[in-house]
Amino acid sequence: MVDVVIADVPHGTRSVWTGGADTGTTEPLWLLLEALNPVLAPTAVVAIASDRAQRPRHEAYLRRDWFQVGKRRIELLSPVSGSG
């Protein structure tokens, strides 16, 4: 089981998301969180660094906190109890 995940997701004009399964959503952050969920420990912390336009949202996670570093917003998430 994974206890900590730190991800700085693509942003800007020189980097883009690619790939992904046909899951009915085009939201790459949702797909990232969906893929991580089965391997996370129940007490895991997931830190996602993104620009303001991207917000990590997934029904299997709770946002615990957030802070700003320059133009990047870091959100700290944890799996909802029993879903990891």
What's the short version?
With 84 residues, the chain is mostly beta strands.
Task: Describe what this molecule looks like in 3D.
There is one protein chain. The protein is mostly beta strands. The chain has one helix spanning 28-36; strands at 2-8, 40-50, 61-69, 72-79. 11% of the residues lie in helices and 42% in strands. A 4-stranded mixed β-sheet has the order 1-2-4-3, with no helix packed on it. Strand 3 (61-69) and strand 4 (72-79) form a beta hairpin. The longest helix is centred in the middle third of the chain and has 9 residues, at 28-36. The chain is globular, with a radius of gyration of 13 Å.
Largest sheet: 4 strands, mixed
Rg calculated over all Cα atoms: 13 Å
Q: Any guess at the CATH architecture?
A: 3-Layer(aba) Sandwich
End-to-end gap:
9 Å
The overall pLDDT, averaged over residues, is 84
**Largest sheet, spatial ordering of strands:** 1-2-4-3
What percentage of the residues does DSSP assign to strands (E)? 35-45%
Counted beta strands: 4
Instruction: Give me the strand/helix succession.
Output: EHEEE
CATH superfamily name?
A: Vaccinia Virus protein VP39
Structural class: mainly beta
Instruction: Please give the domain count.
Output: 1
Helix content: 10-25%
Keywords:
single chain, 84 residues, mainly beta, Rossmann fold, four-stranded mixed beta sheet
Give the topology.
Layout: E1 2-8, H1 28-36, E2 40-50, E3 61-69, E4 72-79
Parallel strand pairs: 1-2
Antiparallel strand pairs: 2-4, 3-4
